Every structure is written in structure tokens, then in C-alpha cells.
């Protein structure tokens, strides 16, 4: 038995080192590869990029009315203008929709934790009055959970509708990512 165990240990030790490459070997290969590269790649910095005049205005704070929309986004025949900011508009719409969905999902997770905690409190208390109060809080949390769950379904449908609207407007799919 001990011979078999010794043979297995030796076999594992030899097999582990046979295919491994030392750090020195890797460093030598990388040094040789770098010597073969004739011209280093170009690094692009902010100074190399042009400044854009199409900067979107900041979003209004919560509770404030949004700025009035321009009606200049249509041509004379009623078709929408193709502007450079179209991509920004579509990206912003999708980002806003996804952010709202993520926020609701986080709220749903927090509500689930609250419901679980209230259930643990309910089962831990022997006092009837305290249990009634905890059960009332739990029912409120469950109602809020159902409301947020329905809100998430509405938001998922809104995202799907936005994707369909973008598809019909021939928006490149990359703009919605």
C-alpha cells in the first residue's frame, strides 16, 4: 500500500513540473518578441481626439420638469432628421430604461430581505401583540414586493418596446448596448 502511495506521489510531482514553463523562459520569449516588433503601436490620448460640439444637456433633477423639447428634429416632409446626436439619444434612452430596471431589481431584492427578516422575527417572538405588529409589517412589505415585481415586468416590456421601436427606425443594434 505504501509503495503505491509513494509511486502516486512521485508521479504527481513529475507530471506537475513536466509541462510547466518557468518565469525566466516566459521573460526570454517576451523579450525576443519585443525585439521583433519594428514600430511600437500608437497610443491615442485625449489631446489626439477632437472636441465634440454635440454635448447633451444634463438630465433634470428628480422632481423637476424636463426642459421643453425642440420641434426642429423633423424635416419638411415629417421624417426625422439624421443627426450625430441620434446615437446619443438612443443610447441614453436605453441606458435610462436599464438603470430603472436595475434599480427596481435591487429594490425587489431589498424587499425580499426585509420580508425574510420579518418572518424570522415573527417566528422568534412569543408575544401575541408583537407578532401582530410584525405580521402587519410583513403584509405591507409583501404588497410592496408585488407592486415592484409588476413594475419590473412593465420595465422589461418597455425595454422590449424600445428595442422594437429602434429596430423599426433602423437604429444599429450597437447603439442600444
Give an overview of the whole structure:
- This protein is an all-alpha fold.
- The protein contains four helices and no strands.
- The protein has helices spanning 2-18, 23-36, 85-124, 128-168.
- Helix 3 (85-124) packs antiparallel against helix 4.
- The longest helix is centred in the C-terminal third of the chain and has 41 residues, at 128-168.
- The chain is flat, with a radius of gyration of 31 Å.
- The model has no long low-confidence stretch (mean pLDDT 79).
The Cα radius of gyration reads 31 Å
Strand-residue proportion = under 5%
Number of helices: 4
- Amount of helix: 55-70%
Largest sheet entry: none
SS-derived structural category: mainly alpha
Ranges where pLDDT stays below 50 over 5 or more residues in a row are: none
Beta strands, count: 0
Principal-axis shape equals flat
- For the residues shown, what is the average pLDDT? 79
For the terminal residues, how far apart are their CA atoms?
61 Å
Order of H and E elements: HHHH
Topology:
Elements: H1 2-18, H2 23-36, H3 85-124, H4 128-168
Helix pairs in contact: 3-4
Short description:
The chain is mainly alpha-helical and about 180 residues long. The chain has 4 helices and no strands.
Keywords:
single chain; 177 residues
Amino acid at each position: 500500500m505504501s509503495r503505491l502511495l509513494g509511486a502516486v506521489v512521485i508521479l504527481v510531482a513529475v507530471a506537475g513540473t513536466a509541462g510547466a514553463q518557468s518565469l525566466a523562459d516566459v521573460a526570454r520569449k517576451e523579450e525576443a518578441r519585443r525585439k521583433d516588433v519594428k514600430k511600437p503601436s500608437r497610443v491615442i490620448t485625449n489631446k489626439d481626439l477632437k472636441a465634440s460640439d454635440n454635448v447633451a444637456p444634463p438630465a433634470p433633477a428628480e422632481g423637476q420638469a424636463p426642459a421643453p423639447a425642440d420641434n426642429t428634429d423633423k424635416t419638411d416632409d415629417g421624417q426625422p432628421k439624421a443627426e450625430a446626436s441620434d446615437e446619443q439619444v438612443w443610447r441614453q434612452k436605453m441606458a435610462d430604461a436599464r438603470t430603472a430596471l436595475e434599480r427596481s431589481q435591487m429594490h425587489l431584492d431589498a424587499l425580499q430581505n426585509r420580508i425574510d427578516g420579518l418572518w424570522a422575527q415573527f417566528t422568534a417572538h412569543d408575544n401575541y401583540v408583537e407578532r401582530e405588529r410584525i405580521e402587519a409589517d410583513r403584509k405591507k412589505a409583501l404588497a410592496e414586493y408585488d407592486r415592484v415585481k409588476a413594475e419590473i415586468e412593465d420595465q422589461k416590456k418597455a425595454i422590449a418596446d424600445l428595442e422594437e421601436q429602434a429596430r423599426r427606425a433602423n437604429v444599429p443594434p450597437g447603439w442600444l448596448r
